């Protein structure tokens, strides 16, 4: 187990390093730069050049990368180019905000999707199953921003029941009740989007298992249906669901840019879009890195969970079963 | 004291240019003005409590209260030496007093809230400007605003090492000399009349920044950390939540005789303009600077919202590129003057104004804003939509239709790419109209939207495009256009991105800024207007504005209403505004 952990960690660091190199090159290959946003008859190119120099933007790319990674190893995420604000000061609050929003949506999704999917697998093509399919189609087909705007139009503007956007009402920062009200609409939008896939995963994964020989054996032994479903089938059916959960984990920090934009949620998704437009390389790199870390951690957690639910999976040197 | 100030002000205005007298009248009558508030009637106010709290006083300013202004971008820095984007400019206008301000007509004036006591006196040779500060002007840390601050600000902006975007406003300065604590003498290297507008600027505090090395000045926390940003305006900066909001509160120690009425201003940042408008409709915000045209009707229909529709200080144009290298067959089809005039005739500009701009636009025939003192009026050629005339001119210039109906000359097909920034719905629509209009006369246009930053970097700045749609915002009302039209300013160093060369105009720009007398200048710009509208480096399309919307809680006297024709005019005289008591 320890050996496995060490091996995985080393692999992860290598992957992270590769990711940073690739994203660094890609981000800088995009035309335009932090100083190209403005165009006015008064801003001379000569002045822009001096600014670039003062901000260190004219140094060769490899030098910029080495500086960046050097700072990172010392725990310094760098500064924004335009106003020299520590990147951490900008990013960490948004990570928290996104975690609140995505965490709430994710939890709600699991609470609804798992039981519902399991139930649907036991009564295939029943009313409940058909309803789930219907919601899944809608959830997949409906653009989230559009759905968000419709909800805003109805609940915030027309009926004036819920806040339109933001995380808090100004002056009520920190009040849980206010936060919950603000969460209602965006969480609804996100949950409907997530539900579509999770109910389907849970259902199909259960159906597949229920079809297996050992389930038939269990039934033949005369076990009750509840015992068959929950003791024998569920544990096996959870494996593919865990994979999906692990893969979705980064979404918890990366956020959903569109939903965050529509609801003006001060999260990472929105930040990333703003910073991409502004070409704030150091912020973009930090967000990419953070997301990458979560992808790796997500996969790792999923692997560990396999071992918990499936005794056949051993975290061995060969690691074949876990892959 | 007060009346004496007014007199000197008028006298110096007179010395500058007689035509500016109107500016004095405006400044003198302001204090006693209490005409009805510009917000809709009191009954339209959605809040029932408004009527309970003394309705007879609805038109009298009250102190206190707060407003929320929305924006779709965050600030960068409000250090006056580095401000260049609109959001930072907004915030700067709230917390900094200017050395001089502009009146509604765009004239430079010394208002009660300006740092300068009176208009500058300009020496007979036009080279020396003497500026006098108000003796009571103070920074928010209690230090006086002095001649050192003026000298520090101008000298820093002028030094290339500092990398200030304002360098071109001050590069004509030779020396700035301190005469006494309140007075400086600015000597120019040459007569340059637009320099007066360079004094319409906030100052940076010398006592805070003078020891910061120039190369590190832009990175200094001054301008990005509210606690370290010493200011001198009616409000001071109290908080900045990155990407979310900024707050400003009336400075209890503000030096001005006239204090702001509004206690707290929140500058709230939204993800885009649509979310901004939604928040205004919901009542989360009280004012937005720019309602997108697609949502204009919705906003107008909403009770209690007041929409200000007017052309603003910016104009859109279609630029021709004269450099052959930018075309696949090494031939710019735009070289014939008649060809360019034909394109101007072929475009239905009035149709664009009526259908796309929805009341925020006005035709423009030269680079001088209609209604400004330099407006050449009828001297500028107005090209009415006339496809037949366009075809005639194209034929005169040697263009003949080929078998596909596309014009050709000497084996070159009249076909070009029209670039604009992707996502700008106004330009997308205008590009489509241009494509259709020019197709009608046999010219093939391929509209192409490109992401803004990349476009500016790869096409606009280096002058590598065939034709493009873009606009100029005129941050100050001076008509000098040398830096965008003169052949001295070819890319990449200059902004004459279309490689346009006209010796007569080159000379007119120089003459225009080399005289101080405004009447003389007016004649020169009338000639420039005629020449440029005949020769057409651009097709000047229209002047356009961004509709401002305010709710019924914001009040102002008629004399203090927002002024859409000025840059940052949506907060014009905000020091005199007040809000409905809650």
UniProtKB/TrEMBL annotation, chain A:
Pfam families, alphabetized: BPD_transp_1 (PF00528), BPD_transp_1_N (PF19300)
Name by which UniProt lists this protein: ABC transporter permease
Keyword terms: Cell membrane, Membrane, Transmembrane, Transmembrane helix, Transport
Leader sequence segment: none
Keyword Membrane belongs to the record: yes
Organism: Cohnella nanjingensis
The family this protein is said to belong to: Belongs to the binding-protein-dependent transport system permease family.
GO terms (BP aspect): transmembrane transport
PANTHER family to which the protein is assigned, alphabetical: DIPEPTIDE TRANSPORT SYSTEM PERMEASE PROTEIN DPPB-RELATED
Domain of life: Bacteria
Annotated compartments: Cell membrane
TM helices/strands, residue ranges: 12-30, 90-114, 134-159, 179-199, 237-263, 283-309
Membrane topology (UniProt): Multi-pass membrane protein
TrEMBL record, chain B:
Family: Belongs to the bacterial solute-binding protein 5 family.
Keyword line: Signal, Transport
Gene Ontology BP annotations: peptide transport
Keyword Signal carried by entry: yes
Residues annotated as signal peptide: 1-22
One GO CC annotation: periplasmic space
Domain Solute-binding protein family: 115-480
InterPro entries, A to Z: Peptide/Ni-bd, SBP_5, SBP_5_dom
Matches recorded under Pfam families: SBP_bac_5
PROSITE patterns, A to Z: PROKAR_LIPOPROTEIN (PS51257)
Region annotation Disordered: where it falls in the sequence: 26-60
UniProt key word Nucleotide-binding: no
Protein name: Peptide ABC transporter substrate-binding protein
GO molecular function, one term: peptide transmembrane transporter activity
Domain of life: Bacteria
């Amino acid at each position: 187990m320890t050996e496995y952990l060490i091996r995985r960690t080393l692999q992860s660091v290598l992957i992270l390093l590769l990711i940073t190199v690739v994203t660094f090159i890609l981000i800088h290959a995009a035309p335009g730069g932090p100083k190209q946003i403005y165009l006015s008859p008064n801003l001379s190119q000569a002045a822009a050049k001096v600014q670039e120099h003062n901000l260190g933007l004219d140094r060769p790319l490899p030098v910029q990368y080495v500086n960046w990674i050097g700072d990172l190893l010392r725990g310094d995420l760098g500064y924004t180019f335009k106003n020299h604000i520590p990147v951490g000061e900008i990013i960490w609050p948004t990570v928290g905000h996104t975690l609140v929003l995505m965490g709430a949506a994710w939890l709600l999704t699991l609470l609804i999707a798992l039981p519902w999917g399991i139930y649907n697998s036991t009564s295939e093509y029943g009313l409940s199953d058909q309803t789930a399919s219907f919601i899944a189609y809608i959830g997949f087909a409906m653009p989230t921003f559009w759905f968000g705007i419709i909800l805003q139009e109805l609940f915030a503007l027309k009926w004036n029941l819920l806040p339109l956007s933001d995380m808090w009402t100004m002056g009520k920062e920190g009040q849980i009740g206010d936060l919950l009200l603000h969460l209602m609409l965006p969480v609804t939008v996100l949950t409907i989007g997530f539900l579509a896939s999770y109910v389907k995963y849970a259902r199909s994964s259960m159906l597949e298992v229920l079809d297996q020989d050992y389930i038939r054996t269990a039934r033949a032994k005369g076990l009750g249906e509840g015992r068959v479903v929950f003791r024998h089938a569920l544990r096996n059916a959870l494996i593919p669901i865990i994979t999906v959960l692990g893969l979705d984990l980064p979404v918890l920090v990366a956020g959903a840019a569109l939903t965050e934009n529509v609801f003006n949620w001060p999260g990472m998704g929105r930040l990333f879009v703003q910073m991409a437009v502004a070409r704030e390389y150091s912020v973009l790199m930090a967000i990419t890195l953070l997301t990458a870390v979560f992808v790796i951690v997500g996969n790792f957690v999923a692997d560990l969970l396999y071992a918990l639910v499936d005794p056949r999976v051993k975290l061995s040197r060969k690691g074949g079963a876990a892959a | 004291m007060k009346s004496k100030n007014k007199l000197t002000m008028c006298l110096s205005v007179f010395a500058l240019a007689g035509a500016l007298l109107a500016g004095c009248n405006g400044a003198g009558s302001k204090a006693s003005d209490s005409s009805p508030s510009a917000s809709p009637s009191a009954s339209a106010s959605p809040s029932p409590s408004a009527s309970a709290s003394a309705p007879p006083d609805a038109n009298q300013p009250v102190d206190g209260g707060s407003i929320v202004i929305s924006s779709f971008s965050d600030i960068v820095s409000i250090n006056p030496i580095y401000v260049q984007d609109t959001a930072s400019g907004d915030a700067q206008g709230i917390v900094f007093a200017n050395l001089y301000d502009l009146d509604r007509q765009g004239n430079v004036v010394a208002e009660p809230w300006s740092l300068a006591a009176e208009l500058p006196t300009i020496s007979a040779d036009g080279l020396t400007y003497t500026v006098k500060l108000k003796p009571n002007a103070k920074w928010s840390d209690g230090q006086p605003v002095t001649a050192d601050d003026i000298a520090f600000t101008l000298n820093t902006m002028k030094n290339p090492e500092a990398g200030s975007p304002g360098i071109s406003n001050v590069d004509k300065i030779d020396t700035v000399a301190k005469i006494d604590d309140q007075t400086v003498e600015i000597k120019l290297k040459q007569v340059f009349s637009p320099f007066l507008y360079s004094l319409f600027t906030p100052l940076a505090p010398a006592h805070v920044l003078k020891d910061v090395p120039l190369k590190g000045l832009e990175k200094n926390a001054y301008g990005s950390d509210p606690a370290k940003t010493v200011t001198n305006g009616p409000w001071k900066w109290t908080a900045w939540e990155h990407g979310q909001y900024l707050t400003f509160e009336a400075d209890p120690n503000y030096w001005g005789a006239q204090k702001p009425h509004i206690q707290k201003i929140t500058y709230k940042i939204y993800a885009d303009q649509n979310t901004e408008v939604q928040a205004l409709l919901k009542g989360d915000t009280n004012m937005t600077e720019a309602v997108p045209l697609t949502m204009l009707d919705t906003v107008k229909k909403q009770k209690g919202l007041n929409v200000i529709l007017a052309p603003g200080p910016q104009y859109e144009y279609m630029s021709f590129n004269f450099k052959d290298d930018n075309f696949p067959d090494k031939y710019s089809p735009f070289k014939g003057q008649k060809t360019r005039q034909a394109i101007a005739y072929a475009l239905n500009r009035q149709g664009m104004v009526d259908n796309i701009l929805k009341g925020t636009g006005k035709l423009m025939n030269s680079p001088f804003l209609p209604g400004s003192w330099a407006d050449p009026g009828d001297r500028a050629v107005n090209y009415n939509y006339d496809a037949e005339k366009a075809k005639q001119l194209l034929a005169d210039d040697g263009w003949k239709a080929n078998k596909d109906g596309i014009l050709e000359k000497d084996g070159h097909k009249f076909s070009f790419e029209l670039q604009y920034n992707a996502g700008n719905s106004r330009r997308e629509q205008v590009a489509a109209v241009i494509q259709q209009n020019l197709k009608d006369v046999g010219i093939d246009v391929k509209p192409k939207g490109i992401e803004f930053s990349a476009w500016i970097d790869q096409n606009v700045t280096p002058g590598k495009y065939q034709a493009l749609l873009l606009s100029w915002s005129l941050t100050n009302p001076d008509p000098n256009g040398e830096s965008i039209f003169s052949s001295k300013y070819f890319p990449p160093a200059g902004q004459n991105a279309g490689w346009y060369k006209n010796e007569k105009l080159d000379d007119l720009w120089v003459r225009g800024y080399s005289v101080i007398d405004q009447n003389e200048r007016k004649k020169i710009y009338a000639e420039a207007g005629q020449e440029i509208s005949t020769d057409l480096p651009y097709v000047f399309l229209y002047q356009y504005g961004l509709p401002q919307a305010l709710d019924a809680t914001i009040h102002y006297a008629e004399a203090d209403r927002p002024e859409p024709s000025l840059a940052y005019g949506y907060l014009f005289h905000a020091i005199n505004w007040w809000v409905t008591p809650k």
